[in-house]
Target: UBC-like protein
Amino acid sequence: PLTSNLRHWHFSFRGAGGKGGMYNNGIYHGLIKLSKDYPMSPPDIQVWTPSGRFKPGRDICLSASAYHPEAWTPRWSIFGMVHALRLHMLSAPNEIGAMTSTTAETLEFARLSLTW
Model:
């Protein structure tokens, strides 16, 4: 978390995917914004690094995000949310905050993420 705002948790992760996966060589940075009544309500989750999968800086619709308070459980940890987001990169992009890119574009985003 930021010392200036303990509800803002920055994270980074290496891309998801099996051998030869499009995101494998990328490093992606984002932000989890905890609500004032966390852990009783879900956070907003964003990925800031261009990835070809999520719109940078936009809230992402996940079952562990503020888009689905009915599915939220206080048992979610910060690590668990980041891990779920990482695995979610491999699913079809149809949620709010998603985008589609070609394989070539996604590979280029992964390459550029190392300098982001």
Observations:
- The radius of gyration is 14 Å.
